Amino acid sequence: MNLPMKENGLRASAWPDRCAYCQAPLGEHKPDCVCLLRSVVLKLELEIVQAVPQSNDSQSIEFCRGGGSSYCMDNVLTDIEAYLKRTGDCACSLKATTTYLREADEDETRGWGLLGEDEH
Q1: In this structure, are residues 52 and 18 in contact, taking their beta carbons and an 8 Å threshold?
Q2: Phi, psi of 53, rounded to the nearest 5 degrees
Q3: d(CA 31, CA 59)
Q4: Minimal CA–CA distance to 114: which of 39, 61, 54?
Q5: Tens place of pLDDT for every residue, the chain, 120 residues?
Q6: Taking the model in full, what pTM does it have?
Q7: End-to-end CA, the chain
Q8: Helix extents (H) in the chain
């Protein structure tokens, strides 16, 4: 899904009346300009270290951490934030992979702050 423009490529550049990225006149962009955005669905996989009960087998762990129990995935985000704060690292230090899944439709895009201020 193509997204509305939030900025016009404005930044300090040698071309004050042109996009800083594609050099098209302000308000216009070349088809390959990085200012023209679309929404896509990505799958992120992270390797993290977590404490779990000693008696849990792999199925129990996956059930608990996979939304099958009262465990909230917000806890994982909190753990990652705490880890990064303790280590002083950024999220780039995590073992992670990103996979493109598909183009996002409007329903999937809504709520991510990509449709503009009013989130049509």
Answers
A1: no
A2: -55, 140
A3: 48
A4: 39
A5: 777 665 555 555 667 788 888 888 888 889 999 888 899 999 999 999 988 899 999 998 888 887 777 778 888 889 999 999 999 999 889 999 999 999 999 999 988 888 765 555
A6: 0.72
A7: 14
A8: 58-63, 74-87, 106-109
The DSSP bridge pattern shows strands 40-47 and 95-103 to be antiparallel
Burial of residue 19 (CB within 10 Å: 0-12, 13-18, 19+) is buried
Domain residue spans in the chain? 1-38, 40-109
- Total length of the chain: 120
Place of tokens 């690292």: 89
Distance, in Å, from the CA atom of 106 to the CA atom of 113, rounded to the nearest integer, reads: 12
By three-state DSSP, how is residue 101 classified? strand
CA distance 49 to 47: 7
Please tell me the number of Cα atoms within 13 Å of 56 on its side-chain side. Answer: 12
CB 35 within 8 Å of CB 21 = yes
